[in-house]
């Protein structure tokens, strides 16, 4: 019997039955939560990116660029004094932006005091463009349009001009055409000066 008692005690010890009984649970006091106020953050102005600078349009000296060409044209063979000239606006065929309206204006100034041609007035030109169904701002992108318009205003000659090449060192090309045949009676070119 002793033997069984020893085995029973050993079994109790191994199973942990001899450990202390658990203490009754104590109720925990309620936890109070304090509201946290967020830190005051000063509003930051929005980050702005700098506005990119527009490309600088070169200031070209159009009048001194067109004057030598106009002088050559006025002395050309086959030009009849007293003729009517349709001055087409200057086209930009460069690889950048140019102020061709200033070039056209310089051509008008260079031809204003000549004794060879009388220039078709702007008002008459605008009316003729309307007759052809063109807008007043149409730059007559082709020689055939310019010649058709010249026939309406009874001009004998058309001066067709364009600026070509690199925008940093452009070249001005001018052609004087006879309206009746479309023949080029004079052509010249020169560098545009800054």
TrEMBL record:
Sequence ranges of Pro residues compositional bias? 24-53
Q: InterPro entries from the xrefs?
A: LpoB, Membr_lipoprot_lipid_attach_CS
Predominant localisation class: membrane
Write out the GO biological process terms: peptidoglycan biosynthetic process; regulation of cell shape
Q: Using the record, list the residue span of the signal peptide; answer none if the entry has no such feature.
A: 1-19
Q: Which GO terms describe its cellular component?
A: periplasmic side of cell outer membrane
Q: Which GO terms describe its molecular function?
A: enzyme regulator activity
| Pfam families xrefs | LPAM_1, LpoB
According to the record, the residues making up region (Disordered) are: 19-53
Does this entry carry the keyword Membrane?
Answer: yes
Q: Where is it localised? A: Cell outer membrane
User: Keyword annotations for this protein?
Assistant: Cell outer membrane, Cell shape, Lipoprotein, Membrane, Palmitate, Peptidoglycan synthesis, Signal
Q: How does it sit in the membrane?
A: Lipid-anchor
PANTHER family in the cross-refs: PENICILLIN-BINDING PROTEIN ACTIVATOR LPOB
Name the family the entry cites: Belongs to the LpoB family.
UniProt subunit comment = Interacts with PBP1b.
State the protein's purpose.
Regulator of peptidoglycan synthesis that is essential for the function of penicillin-binding protein 1B (PBP1b).
Query: What is the name listed in the Swiss-Prot or TrEMBL entry for this protein?
Result: Penicillin-binding protein activator LpoB
Say which species the protein is native to: Serratia grimesii
The taxonomic lineage of its organism, from the top, reads:
Bacteria, Pseudomonadati, Pseudomonadota, Gammaproteobacteria, Enterobacterales
Instruction: Name the encoding gene, please.
Output: lpoB
